[in-house]
Amino acid sequence: MKYNFGEIIDRKHTNAMNTDGFREYIFKATSDMKFPYEDDEFIRMWVADMEFATPPEIIEAIKDRLDKRIFGYTKIFDPEYYTSFVNWTKKYYDWTFSKEHLMTSPGIIPALYELVEYICKPDEKVLIVTPSYAYFKHAADYNNVELVTSDLLNVDGKYSFDFDDLEAKASDEKVTLCIFCNPHNPTGRVWTPEELKRFGDICFSNNVIVISDEIHCDLIRNGMVHTPLAKIFPDSDQIITCMAPSKTFNLAGLMMSNIIIPNDEIREIWQARHYSFENPLSIAALQAAYQHGGEWLMELKNYLDDNFAFTKKFLEDHLPEAGFHIPEATYLAWVNIKAYLPNEENLSLFFANQAGVLLEGGNMFVANGDGYIRLNLACPRSMLNEGLERISNLLLAQKK
Ligand SMILES: Cc1ncc(COP(=O)(O)O)c(C/N=C2\CONC2=O)c1O
């Protein structure tokens, strides 16, 4: 191994959401909220960023840009950014897109907020499948647009579309936009080409535009293949594809994502309304990620696959009544613990207070997540083991 994923890195005094933002984000509380644990005693398995150092190749590119010593107003003028990214999508997803369609945003969430405003009229509705990353709901709420949800089917922890329900919801003429997660957070599904085709046919035959949020698409298990929704519908301009190396290379704080908008009308609104300057260090980092990140990603995927295998065995050995399948994508474990805590409403608070573990409870994923916890496994194995030990000790104590 060329890279050290077992290293414990001190994130204190870095203004990290992960270490300092959990009271506000998870508990909607102020910074004086008290727990029986000191902040640095928690095992943090909640927000989706990683405890791993960003690849040295990316850090080197940022340093090179720093050496230029002037950081004035910046936009992407150099075609090398597009070339680096499209070479990556060609190599990893066998998919390409036009340079003219590539926009950027200081994050995918800000893009969702803007796109809902640009696409939906006030009396229209946004469709999502559930459970869902909560910011998909926020994107509708903050634009005062009604949210419509379609629960994924869950058969013994295996998730799939309820296509009949999806068809029924999409056929509502007021549903004009679907925010779609591909691969899916929090269930970890990698949608098959067949599922994507049926999903897209339902949306497009009902005049529903799709934002395909593909931020997790590089973080798939070895052996899996990501299919961009737009690859299934190469002639459609009804798909906005959101991708970013921020999840892949632990760069979320650099606030830059790729938004591919093939629809001329929507892109023109975006270009007129979106503040399109970029951070020069972010451009350097993202370009380096796509040019030089391949080897690190390969080792990261191996380490994550081992963390998932470790977690699966741990749960089988210590919590045999928990429901868990190794997800096809993401570094997030979605675990059914109903058998141990059938009635606990606020799982995040329960584990924070009783086990000193910060995690996200199923109730944080809009709907269809009761009894589940989501664990971030993108951490050194020693940290993972401690978190799992604390969780299992607490849950086993409930059974006594
Ligand atoms: C599906 C999905 N889209 C967008 C984002 C955020 O994109 P950004 O605005 O950073 O470019 C996340 C991050 N997911 C997180 C972050 O913390 N917990 C999660 O589940 C995500 O899971």
From TrEMBL:
UniProt entry tagged with the keyword Iron: no
Gene3D superfamilies in the cross-refs: Aspartate Aminotransferase, domain 1 (3.90.1150.10), Type I PLP-dependent aspartate aminotransferase-like (Major domain) (3.40.640.10)
Enzyme class: lyase
InterPro entries per the UniProt record, alphabetical: Aminotransferase_I/II_large (IPR004839), C-S_lyase_PatB-like (IPR027619), Class-II_PLP-Dep_Aminotrans (IPR051798), PyrdxlP-dep_Trfase (IPR015424), PyrdxlP-dep_Trfase_major (IPR015421), PyrdxlP-dep_Trfase_small (IPR015422)
Domain Aminotransferase class I/classII large, first and last residues per copy: 48-391
Cofactor: pyridoxal 5'-phosphate
Domain of life assignment: Bacteria
Family statement: Belongs to the class-II pyridoxal-phosphate-dependent aminotransferase family. MalY/PatB cystathionine beta-lyase subfamily.
The name this protein goes by in its record: cysteine-S-conjugate beta-lyase
The species this protein was found in: Fontibacillus solani
